Amino acid sequence: MEQARRVEADVDSCDPCLSVSHLSLRFGAGCPSCMAPDAALERNVCPVCGTVHAVRDVSFDVYPGEIVGIVGESGSGKSSLMKCIYFDQDASEGDVRALPFDGGAGNILDLSSQHKRRVRNTVFGMVYQNPYLGLRMDFSSLSNIAEQMIASGERRVDAMCERGYELLGEVNIPARRAKDAPALFSGGMQQRVQIAKALSNNPPILLLDEVTTGLDLSVQASVLDLILRIRRDYGVGMVVVSHDLGVIRMLADRTLVMLDGRVVERGLTDQILEDPQHPYTQQLVYSLI
Ligand SMILES: Nc1ncnc2c1ncn2[C@@H]1O[C@H](COP(=O)(O)OP(=O)(O)OP(=O)(O)O)[C@@H](O)[C@H]1O
């Protein structure tokens, strides 16, 4: 609750809870030919040295209670961008500020590994496309939530149990299944346990990477509803990555369109859907109709 109150205060101040500036990720050393800002690459690969420019100079802000969507085809760099923000991958360059950590005073990419752990455990909640990355499949669902709470300093077993049941209830996992391991659950239920785990520390910022991909349409709809309810009830800022513009249309207030590592278009989601400017965005929007 304390975190939620802090989020409300942040809305008032109108400062972004997350600011990403000039973030880049390369696989390879780069060369003079591909390091220039307007370098001609073959998609995202340097034709001279073979360096893969997975993320190129990406900047955006997320405000408390806002959902920012990142859409693009497979290989456009969406997951790499999320991995850099969540420290799963070291960015090549960039500056990321998190208001709830230090008032946005410093670049969190420069923190020590100990402080990065703290940011991961108290500022961010992460939900991966692959639940195997976010859950311990053979621990009970309650233990998964407790593990996350322990990581952020909680030690009271009663409090962890109570919070675990509360969160599992919120994501529609019945109490009688709380002690079951996620390995025994359907894909949709596993995603809901991941979301419950990600919420367990009241993170002010949620990162959601292709969370509905591979789910049946009806299950997808229930997860999307859940995400919207979380935004309404907790006021968290979210970054939602998807290759599916339909998902982004349902969720995002503002959208960035990525292609070959770059942001090729950005704006209010409605605006992008009604009047796409970039040929790639036009193709995405027309394929929705
Ligand atoms: N370890 C790596 N070494 C070299 N290239 C990589 C590595 N990891 C990712 N890439 C490349 O970086 C680019 C961006 O990949 P990324 O996974 O971020 O794309 P994406 O938009 O999330 O696509 P998908 O949804 O299919 O994962 C791709 O060209 C990918 O091949």
Summarize the structure in words.
By secondary structure, the chain is α/β, with parallel strands linked by helices. The chain folds into two domains: 2-123 and 204-288, P-loop containing nucleotide triphosphate hydrolases (Rossmann fold, 3-Layer(aba) Sandwich), CATH 3.40.50; 136-202. Helix content is 42%, strand content 21%. The chain has 13 helices and nine strands. Helix 10 (217-234) links the parallel strand 6 and strand 7 (237-242). Helix 7 (141-151) crosses helix 8 and helix 8 crosses helix 9 (187-199). The termini are far apart. The structure holds adenosine-5'-triphosphate. Adenosine-5'-triphosphate binds at residues 27, 44, 52, 54, 72, 74-80, 243.
